[in-house]
Amino acid sequence: MTESLVILKKESGIGTITINRPEKMNAVTDEMQVMLTDIAVDVTLDDEVRVVILTGAGRAFCGGTDVSVFSRSPEEREAARPSPTPRQLPENPLPGWRWTRIPKPVIAAVNGPAVGMGAEWTVQCDFRIASENARFGWVFAQRGLVPDTGAGPYLLPFIVGMEKALELMYSGEIIDAQTALKIGLVSKVVAPDQLMPAALELAQKLMRGAPLSIKGIKELTYGALQWPPEVHRQETGKRFRASTQTEDGREGIRAFREKRSPVWKGK
């Protein structure tokens, strides 16, 4: 039962992570948090995984934190929480949210309601594609709380603008997929049976670029949210110079000259 709470499937360079507690709207327990952290580390370290898709099983994407965890004290929760598998990650300047920190494209395939922590997770991803059944809600203020991961207050204004982000978070309004498309929260809305095909199509498109180039672009893009311009310029120069010395950098130039598609090695 424990292993089935989160499913990781790797196929053709795509790692698909499915939150699999459909009978509870994929509400997340402390145990699942540890499992998801382990999986995020796994896809980060696996060079065969080029793109990550995050989705939910059943009719929900993620209903947020399982409120039953709040019946225990923080000390009790900490004592009961399993420890993540110890693995050393390479240094990474990306913001510390679980899904943002993966140095590869991450797509949220939002199959149903994404509320609370579920909504927070969608903005930690680089892309959001929604089923017609998707719903989004930062419901924290209606529970007397603030967004638990902090991704909404930090990242949401960059996606939908400050005013709309504050409206969503202050009111706790749950919006449908078409509203999310209108305000720019998602890039596409599709029929439920077309959600995973659309996510896989985008994943295939994103794999055209060199893995190390995409890693550098992601670091520079998210770095722009926190670095002053001079630091960003220096970081850009450092990554550009490094990219010219990689096997993929040399392959890209050769392929251009030879008028053929490049073959990336991630080196």
Word description of this protein:
The chain contains 10 helices and 9 strands. The radius of gyration is 19 Å and the shape is globular. The relative contact order is 0.11. The protein has 267 residues and is of the alpha/beta class. Helix content is 41%, strand content 15%. The protein folds into 2 domains: 3-206, 2-enoyl-CoA Hydratase, Chain A, domain 1 (Alpha-Beta Complex), CATH 3.90.226; 211-257. The protein has helices spanning 30-45, 74-80, 117-124, 151-160, 162-171, 177-182, 195-206, 211-223, 229-244, 247-257; strands at residues 6-11, 14-19, 51-56, 106-110, 113-115, 127-131, 135-137, 174-176, 188-190.
Topology overview:
Blueprint (H helix, E strand, L loop, with lengths): L5 E6 L2 E6 L10 H16 L5 E6 L17 H7 L25 E5 L2 E3 L1 H8 L2 E5 L3 E3 L13 H10 L1 H10 L2 E3 H6 L5 E3 L4 H12 L4 H13 L5 H16 L2 H11 L10
Parallel strand pairs: 2-3, 3-4, 4-6, 5-7, 6-9
Antiparallel strand pairs: 1-2, 7-8
Helix pairs in contact: 3-4, 4-5, 8-9
